[in-house]
Amino acid sequence: MTQTPRRIDLHLHSTASDGQYTPAEVVALALQRGLDAIALTDHDTTAGLAEALAAAENTGLRVLTGVELGTWHGDINEVHLLGYCFIPDDADFQERLRWMRDERRVRAEKMVARLAELGAPITLARVLEIAGEAAVGRPHVAQALLEAGHVASREEAFARYLADGGPAYIPRLRLSLPEAITQIHAVGGAAVLAHPFYLPDAEALLPALLDAGLDGLEAFYPDHDAAFTARMVALARRHDLIVTGGSDFHRPEPDGSLILGTVDVPPDCLARLEARAARYQK
């Protein structure tokens, strides 16, 4: 009989998007911290999954297929959706992800132009160089701002320029939330709302999410306090949604600590995710 994983982290990023560590290094860190299962959930890309799966082979660490999609809904420009247990090599899915990454580059170009207008010039070439083969994102712009001496830290770059609604924030074309849920289901995956704490009102949004076929809520998250977590768990149970969680690990914290594996996640969510995903697999 398969042993139920005891320690899991279902929200991790690598150099395939905007994380500091390669997929293999993320796996190594997970093993060092005694995790039993992880999901690599890079932004709008599955490029790191093969490396992560290879690195975890014969280690006892389970690696779920994962992705984090940026979506919009109504007046909300940023709603993040996590996909799990899907078939990553579907051609239509990969084409849609390429379109989303192309739109990330267009947004980066517009942000660079806006920053020049604001008196904080950087070059698109340097932003793309920092991103490398990864899906380009705001953290790469933040690093370019830091290198150019316009800010003293990545955190300041977001606070002064890049945060949602900031003077250099540029929305990008992306899937609507229902479209993203449908896309995840089309490749045999389960769709989970990421870090609902960052939404203006997750509970008010829920009816639309349920109509679109949402499968789960990321209730356990570093920025969720006990009261908010309890509200999300109760909401999930009321609507038969899977409760998940993860650290949203990208890089060391300013004090050098690692949040990878520090969020207590219900271990039974893995079996529930796999069972829910099986409903959509042909």
Q: Give the helix/strand class.
A: alpha/beta
Main sheet overview: 6 strands, mixed
Order of helices and strands: EHEHEEEHHHHEHEHEHEH
Coarse shape: globular
CATH topology of the domain at 8-96 and 176-278: TIM Barrel
Q: What multimeric state do the chains show?
A: single chain
Q: What is the mean predicted local confidence, pLDDT? A: 93
The poorly predicted ranges are none
Query: How many E-type strands?
Result: 9
For the record, the CATH architecture of the domain at 8-96 and 176-278 stands as Alpha-Beta Barrel
Strand order of the largest sheet: 6-4-5-7-8-9
Number of distinct helices: 10
The name of the CATH superfamily of the domain at 8-96 and 176-278 reads Metal-dependent hydrolases
Q: Terminal Cα separation, in Å?
A: 26 Å
Record keyword descriptors for this entry.
single chain, about 280 residues, alpha/beta, TIM Barrel, 3-stranded parallel sheet, 10 helices, globular
What does this protein look like?
By secondary structure, this protein is an alpha/beta fold. It has a domain at 8-96 and 176-278: Metal-dependent hydrolases (TIM Barrel). Helix content is 41%, strand content 16%. It is built from ten helices and nine strands. It has helices at 23-32, 49-56, 91-117, 124-131, 138-147, 154-162, 177-186, 202-212, 226-238, 269-278, and strands spanning 8-12, 37-40, 62-64, 66-73, 76-84, 175-176, 190-193, 216-220, 242-245. The strands form two sheets. A six-stranded mixed β-sheet has the order 6-4-5-7-8-9. A three-stranded parallel β-sheet has the order 1-2-3, covered by helices on one side. The longest helix has 27 residues, at 91-117. It is globular and about 50 Å long. It starts with 7 loop residues before the first strand and ends with a helix. 46% of the residues are buried. The mean pLDDT is 93.
